[in-house]
């Protein structure tokens, strides 16, 4: 059986997105059909639209999603019809060299559905991050489905599928932020604010939010920032961080922007032997120049955070439980709820910095 549903595609580079009919097949071996309930609008979807990730158009956009499993294919045992799930784009294979070393959060061979979703004329769609959830239904590999407590609404649960998990994980998993640490976060959009929330969750004693937009700094305080730095043309960010950390620099500095200048601010704003975490995504053209002696002389760790180095089966249920306990303010990330037809406008709001997350409710 083939399911004809409404979905949002990017047909060609930088063209306005379209709501069209897409055809979703029944799940084959190892696959799951999911009825999408809500999906966040992430910068990664905009990167697909603009051609910043690839050119395998048309793309079926959307990946920060939660919903209900409708059907599963042969051999699927981890999820069943009726399960409430968050979709993830790191479906651990269990057998690659990372998984074999006991580091499945680095899985180098993640799974996606083998069958293709298509347009009505048979054109195959490329689902964003192997998910494609700006649609009433989507087809994924069953390991891309993580069961969580259905008491958490889909509008917040789905955000763990990408940006919020990336930020929380950058702080806790990659940066190893712990009680009494000092933390600085450069860039206070959704990912940066999630890093702030994660740092607060584990008891960091001083959390410094850094951004060019006062609105975003105000939002950052709601997630746990204890201090803020408004960046203007002449602001010396490392010096400002040092001034707020007894002259030493922060134990962990998280770059949630992903530009050479912000990475350097993070590098020089950390304490000796401190940690830099890059979670903001650079473009392919960006280059970094820094004296090698400075890298040697300051010691510590320089890390990149992939998906918050998360293990969905481990992290999603725990974070949902923390949300239900009132300890993780996922609701604060939701700036607005929209329909499939409003996604193009949501991209404009995102680009202007007017929202943390627009969430599509289906």
TrEMBL record:
Database matches in Gene3D superfamilies: Medium-chain alcohol dehydrogenases, catalytic domain, NAD(P)-binding Rossmann-like Domain
Origin: domain of life: Bacteria
Q: Where is the Enoyl reductase (ER) domain?
A: 7-362
Cofactor(s) recorded in Swiss-Prot or TrEMBL? Zn(2+)
Looking at the UniProt entry, the stretches that span the membrane are: none
In the Enzyme Commission scheme, what number(s) does this protein have? 1.1.1.306
EC top class, in one word?
A: oxidoreductase
UniProt keywords, alphabetically: Metal-binding, Oxidoreductase, Zinc
- Fetch the SMART domains from UniProt: PKS_ER
Q: Which GO terms describe its molecular function?
A: mycothiol-dependent formaldehyde dehydrogenase activity; zinc ion binding
Q: What does the similarity note say?
A: Belongs to the zinc-containing alcohol dehydrogenase family.
The name under which this protein is listed is S-(Hydroxymethyl)mycothiol dehydrogenase
UniProt organism field: Nakamurella antarctica
């Amino acid at each position: 059986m083939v399911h004809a549903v409404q979905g949002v595609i990017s047909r060609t580079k930088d063209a306005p997105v379209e709501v069209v009919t897409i055809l979703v097949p029944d799940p084959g071996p190892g696959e799951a059909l999911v009825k999408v309930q809500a999906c966040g609008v992430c910068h990664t979807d905009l990167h697909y639209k603009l051609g910043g990730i690839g050119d395998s158009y048309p793309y079926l956009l959307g990946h920060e999603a939660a919903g209900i499993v409708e059907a599963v294919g042969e051999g699927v045992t981890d999820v069943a019809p009726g399960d409430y799930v968050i979709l993830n784009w790191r479906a651990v294979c269990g057998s690659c060299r990372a998984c074999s070393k006991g580091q499945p959060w680095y899985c180098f061979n993640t799974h996606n559905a083998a069958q293709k979703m298509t347009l009505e004329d048979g054109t195959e769609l490329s689902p964003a991050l192997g998910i494609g959830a700006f649609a009433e239904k989507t087809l994924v590999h069953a390991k891309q489905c993580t069961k969580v407590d259905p008491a958490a609404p889909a509008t917040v649960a789905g955000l763990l599928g990408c940006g919020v998990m990336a930020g929380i994980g950058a702080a806790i998993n990659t940066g190893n932020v712990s009680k009494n640490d000092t933390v600085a976060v450069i860039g206070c959009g959704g990912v940066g604010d999630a890093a702030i929330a994660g740092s607060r969750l584990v008891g960091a004693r001083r959390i410094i939010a850094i951004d060019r937009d006062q609105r975003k700094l105000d939002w950052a305080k709601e997630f746990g920032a204890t201090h803020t730095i408004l960046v203007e043309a002449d602001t010396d960010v490392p010096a400002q961080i040092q001034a707020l950390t007894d002259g030493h620099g922060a134990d962990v500095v998280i770059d949630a922007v992903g530009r050479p200048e912000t990475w350097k601010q993070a590098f020089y704003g950390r304490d000796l032997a401190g940690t830099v975490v890059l979670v903001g995504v650079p473009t392919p053209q960006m280059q970094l120049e820094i004296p090698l002696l400075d890298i040697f002389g300051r010691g510590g760790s320089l890390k990149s955070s992939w998906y918050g180095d998360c293990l969905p089966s481990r992290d999603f249920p725990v974070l949902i439980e923390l949300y239900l306990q009132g300890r993780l303010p996922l609701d604060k990330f939701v700036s607005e709820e929209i329909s499939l037809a409003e996604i193009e406008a949501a991209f404009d709001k995102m680009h202007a910095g007017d929202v943390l997350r627009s969430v599509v409710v289906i």
